[in-house]
DNA sequence: GGCACGGTTCGGGCCGCGCCGAAGAGTCCG
DNA sequence: CGGACTCTTCGGCGCGGCCCGAACCGTGCC
């Protein structure tokens, strides 16, 4: 009576992410960098032996990839598709029901809501603003699915991002990625990744702690000029008080 | 040291799919129809009480939606996004390692590989052929992300599928969906769903058992004429022998 | 060589989860 | 009303998972 595939394959795969420790590993790795096994163990608060076991399973399941160097075991997400998958699942998961307990945690949360990397592209308020600006500027078009326009190609070239090399990859040029703080789409795909990297190269943005991204004063000016982004909206998260409170 | 969100939210959500029975429910519901709790229980081979418990959790988790009618509890996927998520996870999951044991199962597998619904759009060999034909005909364009072209809009209108109503939905017009038998993309999104429904309305396709789809003789002619699909490639799965063996 | 360090392997304990059957609540029908 | 049916609730059982600490291996440094 069981027509076709039973759920064992899917269940086994989903089980990889169904453990808080393993899920925490994947979320940490969403910053796009390679972590050592020990770093991940400490970040998750488990013994090294526990982490080692989990990592072996995640690698075997195709979610993570490893690279051994000397006595270190470097771990990263297997490919951008995994990052997308994890982000989508995280976006659908009910909030961890853990309101920030400490001031430090609250300010970290604000910094992440302001701007962060989502694997290799920009997310948070900055990511959504960028996405919207690219649409109004005609770099992107949404009349029939999200697509990069001809003017978009030249605009990118002017910014120092040639599009042709990006076409060579198997990755879609542009793609929606649901932002879990803004609950609205931001730009992913090869172009999203290239833009994120280019902004860093140009010094418009710099990496903060963890996945956090900060916009430099020069970046604020440049984004206002090239994309018409309101510098006021790009103001960094209020250190105290003046910013709108967020539940 | 744990910057930002821990993995509990994600893990709890993934755990919903990490059980073979629950995963089987979701896979069965990928046919886009509403099943009763009892039907799902029988299909999965568990007691009604067990299924009831699982379904309650899946509904609470936002993966499924229920509708109570009299003494029946109708269950369907919560929204198309869930279908996409489940398909993506299933596509990445290693094959269930269950080569078909019976002749009946083998022929069912062949029928599904030939053509099936993927929630509400077409998948399988037919789905991939359709996707490719739409690209070569200029209905879709992939030069910068997957998009519906202007000629595509008129082509759809000629087929009796007005695009304007589709724009009203929050759903993307066109979207890639990775086919788990062909390992290549087919067309999803609002247009993919509309095309699938239109083909059924026109009598070009009919539903088989489960998620299987069959192409009628009239449908073969029509698809050849309007899209240039080779009728030979649309031949139904060989009942025995002559078809290419598939691992 | 000696030591510190990162990672892995192994054994054991514990908690949670999935399963069932039996009993009960609600619905439809004769 | 009484019977058939669907679904739910509740105990109880058993397996499998997650975790740790201790011992072990390999690397890099002094």
UniProtKB/TrEMBL annotation, chains A, B:
Record-level Gene Ontology MF annotations: cadmium ion sensor activity; DNA binding; DNA-binding transcription factor activity; lead ion binding
One Gene Ontology biological process: response to cadmium ion
InterPro entries listed in its UniProt record: ArsR-like_HTH, HTH_ArsR_DNA-bd_dom, HTH_Metal-responsive_Reg, WH-like_DNA-bd_sf, WH_DNA-bd_sf
Every HTH arsR-type domain range: 2-97
SUPFAM superfamilies cross-referenced by the UniProt entry: Winged helix' DNA-binding domain
CDD domains tied to this protein: HTH_ARSR
Highest taxon, organism lineage: Bacteria
Protein name, UniProt field: Transcriptional regulator, ArsR family
Organism: Micromonospora marina
Lineage: Bacteria, Bacillati, Actinomycetota, Actinomycetes, Micromonosporales
């Amino acid at each position: 009576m069981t027509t076709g595939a039973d759920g064992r394959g899917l269940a086994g795969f989903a089980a990889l992410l169904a453990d808080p420790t393993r899920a925490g590993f994947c979320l940490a790795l969403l910053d796009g960098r390679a972590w050592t096994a020990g770093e991940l163990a400490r970040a998750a608060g488990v013994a090294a032996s526990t982490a080692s076991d989990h990592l072996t399973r995640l690698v075997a399941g195709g979610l993570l990839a490893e690279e051994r160097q000397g006595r270190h075991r470097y771990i990263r997400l297997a490919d951008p598709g995994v990052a997308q998958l994890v982000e989508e699942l995280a976006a659908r998961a009910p909030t961890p029901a853990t309101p920030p307990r400490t001031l430090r945690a609250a300010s970290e949360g604000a910094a992440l809501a302001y701007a962060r990397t989502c694997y290799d592209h920009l997310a948070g308020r900055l990511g959504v603003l960028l996405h919207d600006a690219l649409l109004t500027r005609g770099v992107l078009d949404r009349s029939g699915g999200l697509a990069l326009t001809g003017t978009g190609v030249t605009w990118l070239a002017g910014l120092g991002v040639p599009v042709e090399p990006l076409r060579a990859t198997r990755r879609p040029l542009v793609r929606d990625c649901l932002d879990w703080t803004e609950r609205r789409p931001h730009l992913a795909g090869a172009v999203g990744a290239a833009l994120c990297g280019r902004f860093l190269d140009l010094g418009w943005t710099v990496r903060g702690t963890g996945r956090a991204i900060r916009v430099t004063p020069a970046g604020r000016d440049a984004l206002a000029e090239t994309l018409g982004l309101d510098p006021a909206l790009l103001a960094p998260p209020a250190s105290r008080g003046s910013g709108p409170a967020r539940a």
